[in-house]
Structures are given as C-alpha cells and as structure tokens.
Amino acid sequence: MNRSGSNDDKRASGRQGGKFRKKSYSRGNAPVKNQGSVQPGNPNLIRLNKYVANSGICSRREADIYISAGNITVNGTPVTEMGYKVKLEDEVRFEGRLLNPIKREYVLLNKPKGLSTSGRTQQGKRTALGLVSKASRAELKPVGKLGKDASGLILYTNDGEMIKRLSRPKNGLRKIFHIELDKPFRSADLKKVQEGLTVDEKVVKVQDVSFVDNAPKTQIGMEIYSSRTNIVQRIFDTLGYEIVKIDRVVYAGLTKKDLPRGHWRYLTEQELANLKMIN
C-alpha cells in the first residue's frame, strides 16, 4: 500500500482555497509555551539548570555556568554535576537566595465589556480570567482592578511580587482612558478637572483631560496616575455625569496596539524590563 498519499492528504487538509488556514489565538486559544519542567517518566524530577532558569534569575545556559562554579546548592550542598536532577520539593539556592521553579508568566489582555477580571467561568458565564486560562499552567491573577462594565487593558501574572508592587506604586501608574458620557461634557467642568477636582475631600490630579478629536463632546480622553479605587468613575459622578463606555487604552506603558478586543499576548522582554523598574 502506498502510504505517501495519506501524508499528502494530511497536508491538503490544512489548506483552504489553496491556502493554509490560520489558527485563531483569540479567546484563550493562543499557543501555550512548553514549559517542559518535568521529565517524562520522572514526574517528580527536573533538571537543575531548568529549575534555576525557571526561577527567573538567568537563562538555562547561564545556569550551567553557575552550577559548574558551585554557586547552586541543593538542600545545603553545592552541586556541580551537569544534568543533575532535583525534586520540586528540594531546597535550591543561588548564592543563598531561595529559588522558586515555577516559571513566571506575564499576559496582557484587551478585556471586553461585561466580564469580571477574576473568578473562573461559572454557570455558563465567561470571565476575563477565563479568556487567559490557557496562557499558562500557573495560576494567574490580575494586577489591580478593571470594572466589569469597563473594557481595555489588564495585566495577568503569577508574579506575586510584581502584583504587590504595581498595585500600590509610589507615584501611581500611567493610565489613559477613552470615555463616553451620557451627555456633552461642559467646558466649565473640563476646566475643573484640569485644575484639580476634589473627590471625597481629596484633590485628584489629572495629567491630561480633553475632548476626543473629530468626535462628539460626549467623548473624553483622560490621562491619570492616581491609584484610588474607581477614581475615574467618581470624578464624573461628582460632576453629575454617567459613564456610558470606558476603555483603558494605555496601562503602565503597555498599549492596545495589534491587540484586538478579547485577545491576549505575552509581554515582550522590553515591556517586562520597563515594568520591573517601577517602584
């Protein structure tokens, strides 16, 4: 029997109209990076260089150098053997620092309106967390909050240290919102926001607020660094406006460029480096 034809059929099945079909990576279907943290047949063992690399301190190649130099200890004993395997419950340290082998993931989602940022899908209702559930095998959590009725950028990660640091930064995070109101925004109210509006007995400093070019006066752009809860909503409540739509288009230097609504992507190395510089 000629088996080569079956391979041709398989290749042909991946075509449509003479072209290969492009897989959709939206709504949680993006490819998952193979973490390869556990050896097949040895569910409790992992190569030491992979363990060290997964902790985030260096690459696997650099880990080999540290291992050969005796900088890595396992349960208090220096290990210099290449290919050495450890158990996940072993205590592994680099120059005295305790390492965590769970790879840190950073996922940026362009959240649709109507989805809560946390909580698993229940009773047929989708959540934003459900959209990124396939992005990592680790448990991801949102950085900060984005209201259910809001859309736009939200960051998910399993890096607890980064979540804590970005949730309460010293100088706030740069955020830009595109806002649609229930009625035209009065120029006098625009000036109040620009000069500093008092909300709950505290002045809110807004870096920039303006009408959106070539759009009705109901549409506003706002740049703000404040970390106060629901502060944008509260600004317009104070002035007697209702927010019809609110979209976070910039968050901590991250943008929606090439990221359609409902889709997610991993952060680039440069984006991650920029976030790590925020105190």
Please give a quick description of this structure.
The chain has 279 residues and is an alpha+beta fold. Helix content is 23%, strand content 27%.
Number of strands: 19
Mean model confidence by pLDDT: 84
Assembly state of the chains shown = single chain
Largest sheet: 9 strands, mixed
Distinct helical segment count: 8
| Radius of gyration, taken over Cα atoms and rounded to an integer in Å | 24 Å
Q: What is the CATH T-level topology of the largest domain?
A: Alpha-Beta Plaits
- Give, in order, the helices and strands: HEEEHHEEEEEEHEEHEHEEEEHEEEH
Shape descriptor: elongated
N-to-C CA distance:
67 Å
Count of distinct structural domains: 3
**From the helix content, strand content and strand pairing, which structural class follows?**
alpha+beta
Uncertain runs with pLDDT below 50, 5 residues or more? Answer: 1-41
CATH superfamily of the largest domain: Pseudouridine synthase I, catalytic domain, N-terminal subdomain
**Shape-level CATH architecture of the largest domain:** 2-Layer Sandwich
CATH domain class of the largest domain: Alpha Beta
Approximately what portion of the residues adopt beta-strand conformation? 25-35%
Helix content: 10-25%
Describe the structure.
This protein is of the alpha+beta class. It has 8 helices and 19 strands. A hairpin with a 7-residue loop joins strand 15 and strand 16 (about 220-225). It has 3 domains: about 45-100, RNA-binding S4 domain (Structural Genomics Hypothetical 15.5 Kd Protein In mrcA-pckA Intergenic Region, Chain A), CATH 3.10.290.10; about 105-170 and about 260-275, Pseudouridine synthase I, catalytic domain, N-terminal subdomain (Alpha-Beta Plaits, 2-Layer Sandwich); about 175-250, Pseudouridine synthase, CATH 3.30.2350. It is elongated.
